[in-house]
Design a protein that fits this description.
By secondary structure, the protein is mostly beta strands. It has one domain. It contains 3 helices and 7 strands; from the N terminus they run βαβββααβββ. Strands 1-2-3-7-6-5 form a 6-stranded antiparallel barrel. The protein is globular, with a radius of gyration of 14 Å.
């Protein structure tokens, strides 16, 4: 059995919207299970969120209900994948540009995947 690899952090965005939102709580943390890597600077991962005391893959039917997705959709399409205004702040690694979200599936079922690229400052 292959060991699963996870990274942790939060989706964040800059601008006025961030200042009007409540602070990010521990329950808002995201775990991303690394599914595919394209070198050291790009990856695709399965998004997990904490419900109760358990990390579970994010079901696509719940995607529109999470605040970070609502914020993502507020940005104009061309600026979404630039990582300037919206990014994943990975613990221990910094800002990763969100290239896109999409629905994928594996032997355990359907889930939301995210493609990330490391963003140098």
């Amino acid at each position: 059995m292959v060991a699963k690899r996870f990274v942790y952090g939060n989706f964040k965005w800059s601008g006025k919207q961030q200042h009007t939102l409540p602070p990010i709580l521990d329950m808002d943390r995201i775990a991303i299970e690394i599914v595919r890597e394209y070198g050291a600077n790009e990856l695709v991962g399965k998004i997990h969120m904490k419900f109760g005391n358990q990390w579970v893959p994010l079901d696509p039917s719940r995607l529109e209900q999470v605040e970070w997705m609502q914020a993502y959709k507020r940005f104009p399409l061309p600026s979404r994948s630039a990582g300037i205004f919206y990014y994943f702040d990975m613990e221990g690694s910094g800002h990763w540009a969100v290239l896109h979200f999409r629905t994928e599936s594996d032997e355990s079922g359907v889930y939301v995947a995210v493609a990330l690229r490391y963003k140098e400052k």
